[in-house]
Amino acid sequence: MLRWAPSVAPGAEFVAGSAEALPLAGRSVDLMTAAGSLNYVRLEPFFQEAARVLVPEGVLVVYDFSPGTSLRQTAQLDQWFEEFSNRYPLPAGEARALDPETLAGLDLGFCVWRHERFEIGLTLTPEFYLDYMMTESSVAAAVRGGVPREEIRSWCGASLGPIWEGREHEVIFRGYWACMGQIRGSGPHAVSCR
């Protein structure tokens, strides 16, 4: 991502770091985003770092998508994904489920100002969807556990074949975004979730 960043945003500065130890000066950031990443971090240290680097009126935008597991006209892909998840389960403790309600319930100095759930349909080829499914963390866990990658790919390809029938389909990706800000005491710059 860092290699491609200059072509996407010429003149911008990019750094790599840990969510729990951001390589940024205090009160130096107006807008911070977390895209499908907070599920994998230690939340308390992350929110402490976000509070440190954000300016007082700074905004944290959290967003994420679930895997594309649905087709508009049929439940076949949902059923397939359930079988896939039973066969190749997510590793225990590797990621936590987050959504706007969970984020709003955290007592870590931030509140959710606004949020929205949405879905996006993307037209995908069977080959693209198979390649995409091979990037799931459950596949990586199965490979680490000794299951050959080609065995997983073969099962996925064979079991997806009757669903895709060799043609493109619109796959539904469900997601959310949540705008968050720091909760501050009283006075003209107080922020409250109420």
Describe the protein.
It is a single chain. The protein is of the alpha+beta class and 194 residues long. The chain has a single domain (17-182), classed as Rossmann fold (3-Layer(aba) Sandwich), CATH 3.40.50.150. The protein is built from seven helices and five strands; from the N terminus they run αβαββααβαααβ. The protein has helices at 5-8, 43-53, 76-87, 100-105, 126-133, 137-144, 149-164; strands at 29-35, 54-65, 70-71, 110-124, 169-182. Strands 1, 2, 3, 4 and 5 form a five-stranded mixed β-sheet that branches. Strand 1, helix 2 (43-53) and strand 2 form a beta-alpha-beta unit. The longest helix is centred in the last third of the chain and has 16 residues, at 149-164. It is elongated, with a radius of gyration of 20 Å.
List the helices and strands and how they pair.
Blueprint: H1 5-8, E1 29-35, H2 43-53, E2 54-65, E3 70-71, H3 76-87, H4 100-105, E4 110-124, H5 126-133, H6 137-144, H7 149-164, E5 169-182
Parallel strand pairs: 1-2
Antiparallel strand pairs: 2-5, 3-5, 4-5
Helix pairs in contact: 3-7, 5-7
